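Reminder to self: tokens first, then the designed residues, so the page reads top to bottom the way the pipeline ran.
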């Protein structure tokens, strides 16, 4: 199962999410998109998922805590206990034995990040 994980600011646009996703490798083969639970119903993410015809996997913040990510942000680590919400959400949603196929990519306006992981979906 291939999943795109997203981290984003509350005022993110669909265009910024799309740009980050394209920079991370694009939507081909994706089975779902994922982010931290408290942002999973965000308007821009909901619209992007609808355009792509993909479900949104909401990952509880406590599940993200402790997931090792190659990208490290001190601010994100302090807030979520992981270096990258996008990478950690992708890994958590992709299931057991998940691995990143694309590390975090950032939109030009810096409001969105995306990463892609593959796993067994379990």
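Designed residues (122 positions):
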């Amino acid at each position: 199962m291939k999943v795109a994980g997203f981290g984003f600011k509350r005022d993110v646009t669909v265009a910024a999410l799309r740009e980050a996703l394209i920079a991370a490798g694009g939507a081909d083969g994706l089975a779902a998109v994922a982010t931290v639970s408290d942002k999973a119903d965000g308007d821009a993410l909901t619209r992007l998922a609808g355009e792509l015809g993909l479900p949104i996997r909401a990952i509880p913040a406590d599940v993200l805590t402790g997931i090792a990510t190659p990208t490290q942000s001190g601010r994100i680590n302090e807030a979520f206990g992981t270096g990258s919400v996008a990478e950690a959400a992708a890994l958590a949603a992709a299931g057991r034995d998940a691995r990143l196929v694309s590390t975090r990519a950032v939109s030009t306006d810096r409001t969105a990040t995306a990463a892609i992981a593959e796993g067994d979906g379990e």
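The radius of gyration is 12 Å.
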